[in-house]
Here is the input.
Amino acid sequence: MNWKCHITHTGYCTSNRSEVLHGEKRETIRFYATIGILEHEKHGLMLFDIGYHNNFFESTRQLPFSLYANITPVFHSAHQTAANRLRSLGFEPEQVKLIIISHFHADHIAGAADFPNARFICSQEAWDSVKSRRGFSALRRGFIPSLLPVDFENRLQLLAFDDSKHIKLNTILGSEYDLFNDGSLLLCQLPGHAAGQIGMRLQTEDGEVFFIADAAWVKENYQEMHLPSPIVKLFFSSWREFRASLKKVNVYYNSQPKTQIIPCHCMETLLEINPDSIEI
Ligand SMILES: [Zn+2]
Here is the structure.
């Protein structure tokens, strides 16, 4: 039994090509916030990341979080929220049972309050890195605490990558967490962009899909090992870990060319998979 996977986006912010790909010319590019809507006969309805939401604008009206909105101008309309994307597929957000959070940057969690019945899953390291941070300390990690629902922690399941009941070893990606113990959905560690960031490999009707979150921003990062500008080190949890995670994705890409790799923010990838979602 395979997953049905809908890949779409929740709006975008703008960035600069010279930061995303070191040495390239200065040019404004769109940084889409891609999400995965996942359906499975037995495991139900899930999300991989939640993306933008009007709550992002509400939460960034005042200092210090207004600085976030100033650094990354966001373009988002109500029909693009994860909840409304689900509705357009014939679902209700209340049906979502599980949400995997790759990491806690605001563009990955802004719509979290729309899913009252979901359990959330992230790595222990990702949650530890943000849970008690407020104000500037949170902002420095791209985290806006008010985006999370008040009962978030009660609904949170933390992944331990040393839990022998769930861990499988992949020769390239290392320890992977087999969420349902049936090999259909595997979570791997891709830290560096943010502490404890996780990716997800999924067996779908159309073959394997690998969500790599922000382990690469655009396909050139992992296909050619073309690194971002060193200036982005300022925003990363560990440049060394980022490079190691990117290398793993690069090696995986070369060994499994049929796998569809999804960097969260790559417009070209989104254009290949779901061109209709992109409004010019
Ligand atoms: Zn991020």
